[in-house]
Amino acid sequence: MKSLLLLLLGGLCGAIATVLFFTVDTDFTGNEADGAGGGNISLVLTEEALATLLANELPALPGFGDRPVVEVTVGSNGVVRADIVVGGLGVGFRSAITVNPNIVDGKLDLEVVDASLGELALPEQVRDALEAPLRERLDSLAGGLDYRVTSIRTTEHRLTIEIEV
Description:
The chain is built from 3 helices and 7 strands; from the N terminus they run αβαββββαββ. The protein is α+β, with helices and mostly antiparallel strands. It is elongated and about 90 Å long.
């Protein structure tokens, strides 16, 4: 009876060891299929945070007034769309801009994909109003050191920018 129990216990340990051997990553390397670029610092911004950043910057541009209403949508296709309402009830003006965040020479670069701003501002001015605070935050995270952007992801309604210092 004792031999049978030891045989069963050995078989169970062997089965567990086999499962662990094939499932545990012994290299301790992550699966980089999600677009991770190997950076050591990540900046994650929700749609609400991006809307607040842009709403705080727009009053500096002529035509947007003191309190524009901004709603940002981060698409899983890699683009960020900002819908902007200027004015009040019944007298407001709707506008929008869509940008595609890219990496150019290791730096963040927002490419204007589509814009319907009317005569409020040039698309580049609104793009710069969003890009400037993002770059400021990346500079702050890098602590004044040189850095390069290694990855940009737009998943789960978040914009994630990964940098390497």
